Amino acid sequence: xxxxxxxxxxxxxxxxxxxxxxxxxxxxxxxxxxxxxxxxxxxxxxxxxxxxxxxxxxxxxxxxxxxxxxxxxxxxxxxxxxxxxxxxxxxxxxxxxxxxxxxxxxxxxxxxxxxxxxxxxxxxxxxxxxxxxxxxxxxxxxxxxxxxxxxxxxxxxxxxxxxxxxxxxxxxxxxxxxxxxxxxxxxxxxxxxxxxxxxxxxxxxxxxxxxxxxxxxxxxxxxxxxxxx
Length: 229
Fold this sequence. Notes:
By secondary structure, the protein is an alpha+beta fold. Helix content is 20%, strand content 34%. Helix 3 (42-51) runs antiparallel to helix 4 and helix 3 crosses helix 5. The N and C termini lie far apart (50 Å). Residues 1-22 have low confidence and may be disordered.
């Protein structure tokens, strides 16, 4: 078997979701109440800390249809399409700890997934922020100390709220766009070998917006991880 043949088979196996459900029924609200939380696509969640880049991971491991699912405390379902629109999923089913959903956009209603529990419902921006940045400290090229905590960046002891922008429809696509202290504009974090390159940017639709090439543009800050004992 040559390499091209093997690659074709591997690609097909990756793209075709194969799952055998013990039941073809939708789980009831009473069942879902005990599973309240936010559910992410498993492949996306597992690869996000490896790539450390929200838009790049979206492109490689997520789908516009049914990107994630929230289950409320009363068993209600709210799906998210492409982090831009409310989805149309109305039927989900648990198989063990993994969540599967009937695809509302195809006539066969094929099951799609799996989705896994990653946090509380409607706190997804914090869950994904933590998944990318974790906790740790860095030193900047301006001799500042930057530390990351859950939804927070501390710069020389000054705390700043930091929100990962999940909807990339009007955002730069070269890195992680963070809204800091709810101010205008964004800081875009691009992973480097031992830290981050940070660029100041805006909505791509903003007047006067100029594209940034992270490989050639001068960063606003460069962070290098502190390996503290």
